[in-house]
Amino acid sequence: MISTSVNPTVDDPARGLPAGCVAAARAADAKSGEDTVVLAMGELLGLTDAFVITSGRNPRQVRTIVEEIERRVKAEAGVSPLRIEGAADARWVLMDYGDFLVHVFLEEAREFYDLEHLWSAAPRIPWDGVSG
Q1: Which SS3 state, helix, strand or coil, does residue 131 take?
Q2: pLDDT tens-digit profile of 59-106?
Q3: Which residue, 16, 33, 114, 14, is CA-closest to 72?
Q4: Calculated CA dihedral for residues 52, 55, 59, 62, nearest 10 degrees
Q5: Which phi and psi (to 5°) does residue 38 adopt?
Q6: Is the pLDDT of residue 27 over 60?
Q7: pLDDT confidence bin for 15, thresholds 50/70/90
Q8: Which of 65, 101, 120, 124 has a Cα at 20 to 30 A from 44?
Q9: Distance CA 94, CA 130 (A)
Q10: Domains of the chain
Q11: pLDDT tens sequence across 47-62
Q12: Measured over all CA atoms, what is the biggest interatomic distance in the chain, rounded to whole angstroms?
């Protein structure tokens, strides 16, 4: 449950998460994505409702995570990414689902860009244990 001091309008972690967001986080976790987090971006960014952020140890693992996310989100939520960028070098792959964005990084790229710090005001949404 999200602390009401962070966002008093959100009392249920599943409410407000776009379709497929939890599936994306679980898919990353299933392929050993590291430190997978979901950030609620709606009030801060206005362009998308959530970020899913995860990382892999090497380009091959990053590609595997991306493929699994695409497969699982399609199977569970019936949506495909509007576009995928960065898959060629697999340092930072951005999957744009419209309502949410998935960022799959190589560990060192994640540390360099540090999106969690950049968007530190965004509430972290607990996604494990949420039915979706």
Answers
A1: coil
A2: 999 999 999 999 999 999 999 999 999 999 999 999 999 999 999 999
A3: 33
A4: -40
A5: -120, 125
A6: yes
A7: low
A8: 65
A9: 24
A10: 21-118 (3.30.460.10)
A11: 778 999 999 999 999 9
A12: 41
